Amino acid sequence: MDRVKSSMQQVPNPIHKALIRRTGGANSFELEKENFERGQAVSINKAINTQEVAVKEKHARNILLKGAHTFWATVNRLPLSSNAVLCWKFCHVFHKLLRDGHPNVIKDSIRNKADLGDMSRMWGHLSEGYGKLCSIYLKLLITKMEFHVKNPRFPGNLQMSNRQLDEAGENDVNNFFQLTVEMLDYLECELNLFLGVFSSLDMSRSVSVTAAGQCRLAPLIQVILDSSHLYDYTVKLLFKLHSCLPADTLQGHRDRFQEQFNKLKSLFYRSSNLQYFKRLIQIPQLPENPPNFLRASALSEHISPVVVIPAESSSPEMEHMADLVTEDLVDTDIPAQPVAHLNMFDDLFGTSAATDPFNFNSQNGMRKDDKDRLIEQLTREIQALREELESFRLESGRLCQALRGRVDELEAELAEQSHLSMQALGEGEFLRAELDDLRRVKEDTEKEQRSLTEIERKAVANEQRYVKLKEKYTELVQSHADLLRKVGPFRPLMIEEPQTHGAGVSELVRAVTHLAHLVGDTIVQGSATSHMVPVEQKLRPQGLELQQGELGDLVEQEMAATSAAVESAAARIEDMLNKSRAVDTGVKMEVNERILASCTDLMQAIKVLVLSSKDLQRDIVESGRGAASMKEFYVKNSRWTEGLISASKAVGWGATVMVDAADLVVQGKGKYEELMVCSHEIAASTAQLVAASKVKADKDNANLGRLKLASKGVTQATAGVVASTKSGKSQIEEKDTMDFSSMTLTQIKRQEMDSQVSVLELETKLQKERERLGELRKKHYELAGVAEGWGEEDEGAYVCLRVIT
């Protein structure tokens, strides 16, 4: 009994040790809490800083360990309203906290919605850079919090089953309708951020490999995760609504979904081609066409887009979990302070290892040296295994890194090859379309060529027919004249008395008989001639009733008359210029000199044009007449000759009219518009002369080149006349300025109404004058066609003459 009592006295007091351990545990909890808050603050400050780099994943994971109290306590001390990059990285971390953090994060953060709204409006005043992006991102975060507050069944990461989605709407079509609208609004904010980030980047360069580009692209991973779920749920809800409501009621939903579908498809495709996303996330591709909600069976064809984040062996997350396990193991050990108390207890009361009856090691005879050696041996084995495990881990990490680099290279090559193949397909489609266009152009050209050949063939046939008929007509006329000459000598015989020469009765009878035969032949041939005359007149060009000598002389006369008219016009302009210098002064004299000088230049250009036309005409006659004379060539080409005559007359008449108009303008009796119209008219006449001159010209003729240069000179001189006339008009006319100082509001309104009435009247008058001008031009073309002898059968042969007119 005494031995037991002494042994019990030597056993340490368990109550004392429990008290010591409890006190040490409380201090450890406070220390752990302080260390955690300090670590959270360090992680937040490292994740949210002013450096334009992407947020590191390990810092973001540390922030997700607890709720939002510590996060907001630290963030509220940051200058988010003064630095756009700092605010952008805050939005990224806060978005990740809302998605992957504790469910109470949304409840703890909704109280800061007003501050976030003010910050969004403040950054919205900036139109570029991170300021605009921060404004869009803050609106998205506010929308996300409001959505989850209204729909608490949806978790922050939006991962739900179909049954949970049905429960969220409580199987009520009204709730499903409202939920669809909220999801479309939510997805609209996600797409706005997507588009804002892409529009702020220069996609022509490899921005995804730069630190600044990764800083802007990093938050899009959260956006892609949210958008894929929102798209999937929206499709399912729309199919459910179409099964309960009429299609017309949901037209707005379908239109809005169609627009968002196209945007999301394009953004997913563009994101999947960026090198930054390829190693972090696997982005799904949406179907080519949106779902057909009007067909209920299309729901079975819908495939939910799944975003895959590749898992890495030895990832930072696994390392972080290992650290947490190590810390937990350290915390569960007996603190250092209770161990010190136990040592003090042993020093005071002595160790009981030798005398303790419950010390079984002593009873079994195991010595302490054996235990130490065993512990050391096991420690060495553990250390060796750890080193071997570490080498294996390093080797596997190196191999994984090498394989990952190879995979990235292969993916880059695959993307490049895909891009090249798509580019080749696009080029092939473009070339195929261009080939089809060329084929169509070739077919049209061949058709036009065949049509032109047919027209030329008909024209040649008509010309030959006309020549033959004309020759036949000439023969008939000549035969008729011969018959008349033959009948003439027999008329006296019919008048003389038959009794005068009785002996010549028989001869008279024979003569009369012969005369009867001749008269019969004359009647028959005259009848044939009368039938041929209408045909000849129809085929014969109207207005060409001149004889050979007259037609050739007329061409020379008209060209000479045109030259004389131009010379006379130039002399009159010089005379008017001298008179104006003697009478006018100041601005009036300056304007008149400028206008008359431009008119003189125009007349000189027309003179050069007429001379060039004569030279070209002479070359055409020399090269085309052959053995025939010049007059015979003009008669043979009567159409072309008459075109030259008409064009020459038009040029001479235009020069005379323009000089008359210039004279009236200089005297102050005419209108500047008349002078401009006359200049345009004479330019058109010279263009007609040029076209008529080069119809039969050789394209390599030197005189033809000079004629074209002269035509350009006439065009430039005409433009000079118009410009000088407009400039002079603006200098002469006085522009009245209205005095509003003495006018009341009513008077101004009255004059405004009067001006509107005048504008309407002038517009009506302008429209009527334009219609009248169109009728005049139409009638002019008709009369010109009649004067030139155009007919239905001549239409293909005289297209060029119509273009000239």
Number of helices: 28
Query: What's the CATH class of the domain at 548-733, please?
Result: Mainly Alpha
What is the string of helix and strand elements? HHHHHHHHHHHHHHHHHHHHHHHHHHHH
Distance between the termini: 149 Å
- The residue ranges in which pLDDT falls below 50 over 5 or more consecutive positions are 1-26, 312-366, 538-548, 788-805
| Fraction in helix | over 70%
The average pLDDT value, as a whole number, equals 75
What is the count of β-strands?
A: 0
Secondary structure class reads mainly alpha
Please tell me how large the radius of gyration is.
54 Å
Largest sheet: none
Q: Specify the CATH architecture of the domain at 548-733.
A: Up-down Bundle
Question: How would the global form be characterised?
Answer: elongated
DSSP strand (E) fraction? under 5%
CATH homologous superfamily grouping of the domain at 548-733: I/LWEQ domain
Main location: cytoplasm
Subunit structure: Homodimer. Interacts with actin; homodimerization promotes actin binding. Interacts with CLTB. Interacts with HIP1. Interacts (via ENTH and I/LWEQ domains) with BCL2L10.
Coiled coil: 368-472
Family: Belongs to the SLA2 family.
